[in-house]
Structure formats: structure tokens, C-alpha cells
Amino acid sequence: QYVYQFLNMMKHAWDNYRQYGWGHNELKPIARKGHSTNIFGNSQMGATIVDALDTLYIMGLHDEFREGQEWIDKNLDFSVNSEVSVFEVNIRFIGGLLAAYYLSGQEVFKIKAVQLAGKLLPAFNTPTGIPWAMVNLKSGVGRNWGWASAGSSILAEFGTLHMEFVHLSYLTGDPVYYNKVMHIRKLLQKMDRPNGLYPNYLNPRTGRWGQHHTSVGGLGDSFYEYLLKAWLMSDKTDTEARKMYDDAIEAIEKHLIRKSNGGLTFIGEWKNGHLERKMGHLTCFAGGMFALGADGSRDDKAGHYLQLGAEIAHTCHESYDRTTLKLGPEAFKFDGGVEAVAVRQNEKYYILRPEVIETYWYMWRFTHDPKYRQWGWEATQAIDKYCRVSGGFSGVKDVYSSSPTYDDVQQSFFLAETLKYLYLLFSNDDLLPLDNWVFNTEAHPLPVLHLQERKWTLEES
Catalytic annotation on 318? Predict the structure, then answer.
């Protein structure tokens, strides 16, 4: 019954994209036409197809998978005059193509991933080797987001390339990709960190930190995730990555993690010398991260980190439970009498995000406490009731309103992540066991590498 529900939702999302948005990056399910955002530049790159492939494969939707593969083979072209986000293209496209390759063995996915990676390499041509946020796929010219602190690059963007780039070197035998990401790591290791925390901004020209903001939510989040996952992906041989992770989460626990008056554990954000008692939906992934990193943690603290993961999962479930729609807001505060509730209108939306369900899935894998499946089913029912429209699935603008308005976007990550984690939450542990697979930050599974089989040698860049 459960698994059928997720197949039904996946088919509804895919079939409508297939009919109304095919080849576009995303779908507007109410207007029933294609949609794109600036992260994908101005060209039709079929982001939903690439992002959804591995989910289709895992769910056994092989006809749909073949349709996607055929489109990629014939139409996916990276020699376009288009300025894209290096981070987004890496996690969605390179991650999605690599996962599709490892699951299906179809060479076309590997070939396309390597082609695209070559188009991203010019972004690293900066004085420090810290890449630009954006690169033009045709000209190779890079630049940073106008809004980022003093022309800085963003920690979660340049720090979320490691898994994919190590796999690229593994598959091609070319160390260039590995060297690019190891250079970033070495540079970060040398730098002073205020309070042991990594600021979210780093200037790629000077190699100095921008504003001293630190977050485990947007702008910081997946950097910490990829330190842990670099270690896991290396079959636990990359001890340098594990040490960086342990040091970072020690500082996070000391400075950012607090308990509210009502007893809810939350992760705040460090801004201008003080802790902002606000947590974003994106930060909710950290419950799963703490659980995933529990085994192998310092000083026998595995139980402590599993418990911390459970507390974060509980807090994030409360952020869902305290709304009218039983869907979580984009950000929620812990001030005075207000706990786990959004206060600003522009933080009350739910855009089909996966992070809370991701944490439920990791907690389920490590504890098998049935409440995680129950919570996942609550979210499923809410998504199906309030986000499903005849032309697909849409985000909603206010989770506290009983008659919500739609944002009319079916995000590619809904198919890549949200529906995949729900499906896995109700599947057996032997489907993609965590001993053999490490999921990138877009939920694309990549195999653990036994690096003695590596075709290339480690060399310092």
C-alpha cells in the first residue's frame, strides 16, 4: 500500500512533466508549461530528467527511465551559451548522471557526466583555486553571486564538490578532478576559524573569509555533510576528512546547538557575534547527518550523536505538526513563547523540500523506531492532499493557511530526493544499503570506493 502510493506520486510528477515540460528544467504544474530558474542558466537542460533518473530506476519504473535515457542521449548538450551554478549543476547533473551510470551500467551517463565536468573546470581558474559560483558553459568565464558578502564564494557551494569529483577521477583515471577538490580542502585546513566555526563566505581572490556568518542551514549545510561522506565514501580511509568533520561538529555543538524553553533541541545561526535562534528547513538534514556519523565518532560518543539526531528529527517534526497543513515552513524560530513556528510571511512556504524526510529515513535505518515511518506517512498524506494538482505537484506559499495558494513550481528535487527518501523509508534496508552506497546532497547514490582499485595515483596539485 505504502510503496504503491510513492510510485503513484512519482508517476504523476513524471507523466505531467513528460507531457507539459519535457526538456525544460522544471514544470509549472498549474500553468502546465516549462519552468527554469537562474541556477540552470537560460537553456533547456532537462534538469528534472537528469535528477529523476535514479529514482525511476530504484522504483522499477524502467519505461520512464528509458525515456529519460533516450532524451539525454539525443538532446543533453552542454556547449550552450549559458551561465549556470557550479554547485547546482554538480549535485543535480553530475551527481544524477553518475548515479544513473552506477545503477544501470549505461555508458551514456558516464560520458555525459565527464563532458559536463570538463565544462565546470574553468570555474576553478581563480587566484586561490576556490571556484566561482557561476560559470558560462560556452566561454568558461566565471563570476560570483552579486548578493554574496563582498564577492565571496559560498562554503556550501565550493565545499560540496568532493564526492562527485573524486568519482570522476576514479572513473576516468584523470586526477584533475580529485586535485581540484583536495586543493580546496588543504586551503581550508590552513585557515584560522573563528570559534572553530567555518564562516559561510570566502573570497576567491584573497583567500580570506567574508562576513563571519556560520550556518548548518543554507550556505553552510552540505560542506559538513561532504566531510563526513568523503570519509564514508573512501571506505573510511580518508581520516583527514573525518577529523575535519569531528572538529567542525564539536564547534557546532558548542556554539550553535541549544535547547528551547519548551525542550526542543535546535541548531541556530551565528550572525554578527550572536546566535540567531532560528532554524531553516534545510538545516533539518543535520539530524540524519549526526546519525550517519555516529559510528566512528570520537570518545565513544556514538550514542550521543544518535540521540542528537533523534532530537533534531523531533524538533523538525514539531515544525510540521504545528502548522495547519502538517507541512513544515521554510524557517522557524525559538523566541519567547514561539517555538518551531515561522513568524515572517516570507518564511511560511513549503516548496516540496526533502530534508525532514531525509532525516526520518536515516533515523529509521539506524533505529527502526516505527515513529519515523509514521511521521513520513503523515508528510506523504499532507503533500498528496495540499501539493498535488492535476498537472503535477506544487509548493504552497503558507503552511499555516487552510486555503493555501500555490507557487506553481514542481522542483526537480521533489523527484530526486523527496519521493526517493519516502520510497526508501518504506523499503527494506537491503535496497541501497548504507555500507555500500553514499548519497550525495541531491540524494544521488554513489558507491563506496575501495581505492586500492583506483586507476590513478594521489598527487598534490
Answer: no
